[in-house]
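Let's inspect one such protein example.
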Amino acid sequence: MTALNILSGGAAQGLIASLAPQFKAQTGLDITGEFGAVGAMADKLRSGTKADIIILTAAIIARLAEERWVVPASIADIGMVETAVAVRTGDSLVKVNDEAGLRDALRAADAIFVPDIKASTAGIHVAKILQQLGIAGEVASRLRIFPNGATAMRQLAETDALRPIGCTQSTEIISTKGVALSGSLPRGCDLSTMYTAAVATRAAHAPQAQGLIDLLIGAGQREVRTRAGFIDARP
């Protein structure tokens, strides 16, 4: 036994990375597995991918509990994550104080970097907002769609586009070198998503998985969660 297997939304990747050394010191285990679009990660679990701990949106974890893929008693909220706007480090921050400002910012961009618009939390929301703003067709050719937010942000950091912009969950922006958090989406276009952890029903290392959940939600890690972009689930 050398590693704990995880299936997680990309929103939690930076937080897991920051806590991995402490977890290893406590258990002797590394953390391995996959981070990606929440829908894709849930489907991997259902298709038999080995996992000890699952971190996805609260809604998906609830469905997995009903389907008996995770242990209901282990379910714990980690925190809320906002969907936000990103720019390359060094580029001017984009002001999106209202719907008109967001519409203008998206129209002005020559490349818009987003995660999967069918399987990821932020990507699905971006597609909805483009429709809401009435510019989905106008900007369709400028969308740069990637399997998850982390990949989208890495590509944003490396692009040679003149006026690029990105939109994904704040945690993925914060944890990616070369991009900067420009701001949350404005009211009426905003999205805050609760991320939740659970031990997989078929976990090979259930006690250690529960130990990681306890570490993730512990009061002593509040500052770590905040730095990673999580809005604490507890007062």
